[in-house]
Every structure is written in C-alpha cells, then in structure tokens.
DNA-binding CsgD family transcriptional regulator (Roseicyclus mahoneyensis), 188 residues
Amino acid sequence: MQTATHVERPPFPVQDLAEATTALIVIDETLRLISADPAGHALLMRDNCLRLSLGHICTGSHNRNMRLKECITSGGTGGSLDLGDGVVLTLTPLRAADGMNTTRQAILMARVTEVEEDAVSLVSESCGLTKAESEVLRLIYKGFSTVEAARISGVAKSTVRSHLQRVFAKTDTSRQSELVHFVATWRG
C-alpha cells in the first residue's frame, strides 16, 4: 500500500493554475497516467498530438517522450514542450517536503489555444518554401527528428536532409534549434 507523500506548495496561487491551463495531468517517470482532471481526459481522447496508449502518455514522438521522462527524473525544475496543434505542455516535477524527488511523478499542464495564424505557414510563405520544404519545417518545428520526419513523410532521410538544407538557406539559419527559434519568434 502506498502512503501519501507530503508535497511542497506550488510557487503560484492555485487559482492562477486553473486559469492558466486547460488540462492538468499527473504522470510518473514512465509517462504512466496517474490522474487527470476532466479537461485532461478530454485532451487525451482527442487523439492528436497527445494521447493515452496502454495507460501511458504518448506525444507521437520518441524524442519528445524521452524529454518528458528526462524532465521528471533529472531532478530539475521541469520545462515546456510545444507539441503543435495549439498544445503546449509545461512539466513540473513533484518533490517531497524534504526537496527530494522521491515520488518520481510530475504535473503536466497542457495549454490548448486556438492558433489564429500558423507561424510555420507564415514563415513558409514569406521565405518562399516549397510544399515539401514547408512540411519538413512543420515536422522539425513540432520536435520530430529528421529520421522521424522521413518516416512520417514517407521519403528517404536524405530527401528530408536536402529539404532541410534548403530551408536553412532560405531562412538564413544553420541548425535545427536556430530554425525552431526563428519560427517561434517570427514577426513577419
């Protein structure tokens, strides 16, 4: 039988938490679902960028799943992850009162927003990207690796790399992280 662990108070008022997020989900280090509010369950049932598979949270990307697990087990302060489709995850590891992360659980807050203007589409149009280049940009922006982007697009890894090199040239960037920042901060 598990005993309850005293958890320190969050550094923000609880009413702000309810107003700032659409869904609250508690997961463990294996991304197993522990608990979710009604909005969290509804988000997981949408079956888009965040879903429940065999009792575990799945983002659709192995790399993003690994980043979530790492945030829980690293003992850090957590982090945020943009899943696209208007969903941004903020992960906060739970800690016992003594400061130790003995529970290996975290609160996953999902903010769902309606995206009025899609930044990837705006960048694609402004920089003159082809349809294929735009698709590669969209997948990279969502956090997929070039290998995953190739699998999703149904093309060879070398094709994705070629498209990505042309995207770098057209956006005056040279790394994927720089490209993602470029799109995230795009002001037209």
